[in-house]
Automatic annotation (TrEMBL):
Protein name per UniProt: Glucose-methanol-choline oxidoreductase N-terminal domain-containing protein
Record flagged with keyword Transmembrane helix: no
Record key words, sorted: Disulfide bond, FAD, Flavoprotein, Signal
Disulfide bonds: 423-478
Keyword set includes Signal: yes
PROSITE patterns for the chain: GMC_OXRED_2 (PS00624)
Cofactor: FAD
Amino acid sequence: MNLGWWWRLFAGALAGFLFFHGFAATETAPNYSFMYDATSASTLSYYDYIIVGGGTAGCPLAATLSQNATVLLLERGGSPYGNPNITKMASFGAALSDLSQSSPSQRFISEDGVINARARVLGGGSCINAGFYTRASDEYIKQAGWDGRLVKESYQWMEKSVAFEPSLGQWQSAVRDGLLEAGVMPSNGFTYDHIYGTKVGGTIFDQQGNRHTAADLLEYANPSGLTVFLHASVHKILFAIKGKRRPKAHGVVFRDTTGAKHKAYLKQGSKNEIIVSAGALGSPQLLMLSGVGPAQHLKSHDITVVLDHPLVGQGMSDNPMNAVFIPSPLPVEVSLIQVVGITHFGSYIEAASGENFAGGASSSPAVEYMNNLDETTFRGGFILEKVMGPISTGHLELRTRNPNDNPSVTFNYFKDPQDLQRCVQGIQTIEKIIESKAFFRFRYEFLSWPILLNMTANAPLNLLPKHYNPSMPLEVFCKDTVMTIWHYHGGCQVGKVVDLDYKVLGVDALRVIDGSTFNDSPGTNPQATVHGCEDIE
């Protein structure tokens, strides 16, 4: 067998799946009478609450607050509904490969050399992620200081609308059974709960392959209490300082697609607030652009310092992900993340499969391979491991004063040796799955484990220099092949930037509620917990 041919199919499949993991949004657009393009916004307006960011936290938060108050939700992207690039699970690949200004995804590359993406669409990351739905562990909830009963009620509220039990095909079933053979016990069946062992988790794709996003939760809003502006780029938060004991947030400045400036202010009221839910990159970035952040860094960008807050942008983390592609002699179903092995050593084992990994890919280090490959070339799947936590942290800084530009972010993958050891143990578990009786018929005997690792190590997965060969330890493999699974967090962490009520320390009437406040990523996938932030508080 020509191993060069196997390498070409592998490189194309791996790049197509892992670089362009964009998915589907619910196909039929709801009739949201409160949703407008920002060009229709008045120059000046007043609300009880102003929410910056219509993502996985902002949408349910807006729906909840609108029941008893007037709420403005500002989203820099467009609507997910009716967009052919993000309509069906079967057409995944188009969203994250779309590098245009109107794309629902905005690509960025961390200073570590790992290609990444941030959402730019109503519904946020729930419009472009792998769709896996799972709750945080009881221990995580306890450590966060949340009310366990309220958290459970919040999860159940979301699960009525956006979570489903997936139909397991043969390939995913083989991974599940292989995990059990590998000792990731016990078998926990289908559950949303975070439990040690092997389980089938939820998905935000229904049985027809339609994605259900955080934007769908706006159906619970009070239409007379909510205004949503799309393509509304918030440039800064406005603070009242004169005569105040400390700065008080009282408005925002946003621009529409024509560049026209709009101002929205809080109405008079002791409970009225501005809530930043712009994500782990967007929230610390906006605080800095508004004058809240490390004073010297702000001054270097000619930003007037409202409050010297040195920990804004610190504690940035991204859970490192490493994967192995296994070509299959048999056809396999198209599947995203369905099965997960939750290990005691701190690695989560997941898998995805299918023939159309490269669907919609338009730009990639491996696109030259993909353009010349038949669909059957992509037969196979990936088994991946994600490091929990992680312990390693980095930081975020401004590049420019334009909120539409990506900030500079460094995650310092594997800086802490425990993260690296967890990766090694995760890769060793993947080997056990591939060598299991349950998985045997989905792999070629002549493709040994060292060959599979070498194929992965030589794929264009990131922008890092390559060192690995089969004679080297798995630590080198982990460092060389590190990727993202888009679970980055931090930058506005609890106890450092915000208090236990998520109020920004040192200023009034300003909160941050999103993944930027997390010290660790909750569960195997954070989206369920970010969705639930609005009721947890």
